[in-house]
Write a structure and sequence with these properties.
There is one protein chain. By secondary structure, this protein is mainly β. It is 12% helix and 49% strand. It contains two helices and 30 strands. A hairpin with a 4-residue loop joins strand 14 and strand 15. The radius of gyration is 33 Å and the shape is globular. The termini are far apart.
Length: 378
């Protein structure tokens, strides 16, 4: 099963997985780590690497195979607000309050590109990478939407969001196909199209939208501050509302017909998505304030580990069978050195060994001579 990874305000990274016991599906905790000394702001996963950024100005990379800390990146001088892997998993993009965007190559973790003043020196709040890995979008404190050419490693163009009627954008996400992306602001959700380079539809909500999750290129789920979850189609204006949580919906994530939601109070829920309708599967509480979530699609990792284990066991069995079929040759242990000075000459036969131990004989004679006068006086 997939593994849900959440970051918390207390600095913890927690893992949960759907497990069935006695025909009852539950969210069970799989791991917990306290890699950050302050709150975790963002998390992202690509392959076996989990990257998390926090208010302690560092990016922690964890190897999900070994479940150990792989490396720590200290390239920023401010809170890490955004981490995003390319879809191929070759690079990691990070944005910070120091106003810079840094591209780091995974594997050797060397910096390949730095935009020091990506948003005119204002904080970078969110980053989204296009499914083609050719461009990335970022929003910042200067209220602009900037496009970055990842092929040539340079900025492409800038859009002033204030002129579009947007104030304080908080989140940006691409649709699975990459033709659309969504922008969240105070009371509205804007759907943009790349072909038109403009707003396709503006959706007003009765409560502040806090998180968006694309199901496909047409349907989206939106979490609201009042705890509700709404689903709607971009082409239609009708929306279905579900009572998700009692408090603010902090994060949403969708995969394999399952929608995961988390509230700021620490409550997590898994929903079954069928015919565009939500049905609650199970719930759990992390006992921490959730700040961000992502999903570890660990099925291929588990299979790979099992195959490696099978290969190793096959090699062990093969070596054992080869050793059984081969003749057993006993190796003689090395000869221990005798006390005293001696020289041993070996001719391949134990009977033809000559030992020269005259010095030891002399020492024994001296000891005997010294003992005689002592015995006489006694």
């Amino acid at each position: 099963m997939d593994e849900l990874v959440i970051g918390t305000y207390e600095g913890f990274l927690l893992g949960y997985s759907l497990r069935s016991d006695d025909n009852v599906t539950r969210l069970k905790q799989t791991f917990a780590t306290h890699s950050h000394t302050a709150s975790v702001r963002c998390v992202a996963i690509a392959g076996k690497f989990l990257a998390s950024g926090g208010t302690d100005d560092k990016v922690v990379v964890i190897d999900l195979k070994t479940r150990k800390e792989h490396t720590v990146l200290m390239n920023h001088d401010g809170t890490i607000n955004a981490v995003a892997f390319t879809n191929s998993g070759t690079h990691l993009l990070t944005g910070s309050d120091d106003g810079s965007i840094i591209i780091t190559r995974t594997g050797n973790w060397q910096i390949e590109k730095v935009w020091k003043k990506a948003h005119g020196g204002e904080p970078v709040t969110a980053i989204a990478v296009h499914p083609s890995d050719k461009l990335a979008l970022s929003i910042g404190g200067d209220k602009t939407l900037r496009t970055w050419n990842l092929v040539k490693g340079r900025p492409a163009f800038t859009i002033n969001l204030s002129s579009k009627g947007l104030t304080l954008p908080t989140e940006i996400k691409f649709s699975p196909g990459g033709d659309r992306f969504s922008l969240l602001s105070l009371q509205t959700l804007d759907v943009w199209t790349i072909s038109k380079a403009g707003i396709e539809k503006r959706i007003s909500c009765n409560s502040k939208p806090t998180s968006v999750q694309w199901i496909n290129d047409e349907r989206i789920y939106v979490g609201l501050e009042n705890g509700n979850i709404i689903t709607l189609n971009v082409a239609d204006s009708q929306a279905l509302t579900y009572q998700g949580h009692k408090q603010r919906v902090k994060c949403l994530y969708y995969e394999n017909n399952i929608l995961y939601s988390a509230s700021s109070s620490g409550e997590m829920k898994a929903w079954s998505v069928k015919d565009e309708k939500l049905q609650e599967i199970c719930t759990n509480n992390a006992s921490c304030r959730v700040t961000c979530i992502t999903l570890n699609k660990q099925n291929h990792l588990v299979k790979k580990e099992e195959s490696d284990y099978e290969d190793e066991t096959e090699d062990v069995v093969k070596n054992a069978s080869d050793s059984d079929n081969s003749e057993c040759i006993e190796e003689k242990p090395p000869m221990k050195r005798k006390p005293g000075a001696f020289v041993t000459i070996s001719y391949g036969d134990d009977n033809q060994n000559e030992e020269l131990n005259a010095p030891s004989a002399k020492k024994s004679k001296k000891r005997k001579r010294n003992k005689k006068p002592k015995n006489k006086t006694g």
